[in-house]
């Protein structure tokens, strides 16, 4: 297209600019920035500067015996632990006892939310998976095969997807859910993260803004990634050298909002890093967010829809998902703030009725279930907001702000939120 | 993770390397590269160097009167054509005739495949959408509202998603399919592409390899995008300055295969640009691919699953989708070659039985339907392959090659395909 001229922020007296609600309450950016700097500095001073991950561990709570967690292992140690495991099996076979795997249970009953850690962890229940048993012979065969494939990956030091893994032996695995679930079993058995196994999920997230990092040896400057942004790498172990002059990380649920902020280069007006997984958080984005938080020590502010799923998504970033609880230590980002859109914002920001949607029965049920979750209970502000949502039976997406003009989000709503430090 | 050492191609005498089928038939890369260079040069010499888009047009076929196509318009011309349209409506209202829109029909009966163009185009049938008619009053109101919103976008010169558009008036639009479909109507009415309206689809595609381009003013070097690659920008009008020393474009259906090639940096061994939309082609990726093909004049080789949907996806890139046929000239990339995985490859490359999947009834039906499609018929090679697929009732995904080792795709299959110029 010929029209190449860059967009400018609209002139003060341009059309709908004058009647934008709350535009008047905005202080000059300089003042807002000052208060944000104080916030970031206080956060940095509180968190120990020596180690980036000086957070409570299971050991600190003397839970390490009763709970199970995995850690990042180097490829070589994964390789050797597979080899010693197989050696043990061989011995057991030679001594005439056949062989069986001792597999940690990942069932719901084996899950535990630890308030002190503010995340879900896996308890220590395990179950035997003997080869010489009609009910488990298939699964123990699959387990052996997965171990062999992972061993190959270690030797070659390459990454593959769960799908690749499945396709190396379709006849045995039958469908991918089987190889996927055994893959998680293997992570637990070896006590290492899935990324340590060099099996990665397909990437989904993108990042843009005041961040420089290395992806597989290439230095990436996320202020020079245009509107598209940088695709978050699937393999966190090749990500490093993070540098940033940002004052906060803006975690966005939807890519529409991400796009708006990227095009308006919001991160130039308020130095920040903008990241989104485009809906449900994927492992790569969760690992990337945690790494940013830990290494850069920045506050994380979440911009999600005002519905139960928005809060659910926030919680997955914050304290993990049940089916990967064994890895919650590496996948979760502590202390994420709920910036918006919050149920109380709907009236506060006069979101027009037509942009609010009635909650379905399912929505309301999900909302009520969330109110029972510990990670919500421990935050009175969240309980209050969620209660309001369930009471009013109204929800709204981030895009609802578009009813005040497409740029209301980046020009009024977010700046005002930052100015008022209005997060929970 | 501590283990940071880069992966090397496995040593010749490493484990499963020796028994890789066809590894022996591989010539030295230098010879393969030479023949690829000849190919690219011949392509460049045939396509006129003056204009990049010297392809047949509807006018050349004197179809411009009976068929309708949209073109890229500058924001200012979109704005003025909206204003003159509204002016005409006002006149008609003042002269007591009320108003109605003359909307091009996008129904299947109004679609036409033009072999000379090798793409689907829209015929010239239109239907009236009067305001003063109970059956059309809603839709004409929606049309007016959409026109007004697009007019705003023109003035501000910003981009929004279809979702944003929907949310500016939920009560009127009711659900997004309504605002989406009227948006397409408006494109046809104004005779411009949807991207000319500054309404963009959420980005999905990624690109990596021997390409440098500018995204919203930032220069992007896709050889320095690590394993994650660069997210393809949602707004093609901010993309430009494409430079490349690649010999071909590798269009990949799935992101798993994309990841394998990105990690192995396949584009360093065989200079190419690797692009994927991660499944169904989205508009942004289709526009990006066409722009690359037109400006860089490179052959496009497609790596898709060996099933009817793989070919279907190839066809969407190649000759467009029915529901956006009015924009096929801008969305389609001419002369895409079917590299693989082709039905004949299954036996040729000895894909193990367990990695082939039986086609479902639906698969077979889709396959047979495709055989009736003109874009397949015009390519005897494709007909032959598709017939074989339907006959053997077998399909296979790209990942099926993983059964020979995770890197068989990048180390043997693709190099051999290139060496043998084995595409259709």
From TrEMBL, chains A, B:
Gene3D superfamilies: 3.40.1360.10, Winged helix-like DNA-binding domain superfamily/Winged helix DNA-binding domain (1.10.10.10). Its cofactor is Mg(2+). It is found in: Nucleus. The active site is at 167 (nucleophile), 167 (o-(5'-phospho-dna)-tyrosine intermediate). InterPro entries: Spo11/TopoVI_A, Spo11/TopoVI_A_N, Spo11/TopoVI_A_sf, Topo_VI_alpha, TopoVI_A, TOPRIM_Topo6A/Spo11, WH-like_DNA-bd_sf. It catalyses: ATP-dependent breakage, passage and rejoining of double-stranded DNA. It is an enzyme of class 5 (isomerase). Keywords: DNA-binding, Isomerase, Magnesium, Metal-binding, Nucleotide-binding, Nucleus, Topoisomerase. Its EC number is 5.6.2.2. Mg(2+) binds at residues 253, 305. Component of the DNA topoisomerase VI involved in chromatin organization and progression of endoreduplication cycles. Relaxes both positive and negative superturns and exhibits a strong decatenase activity. This is DNA topoisomerase 6 subunit A.
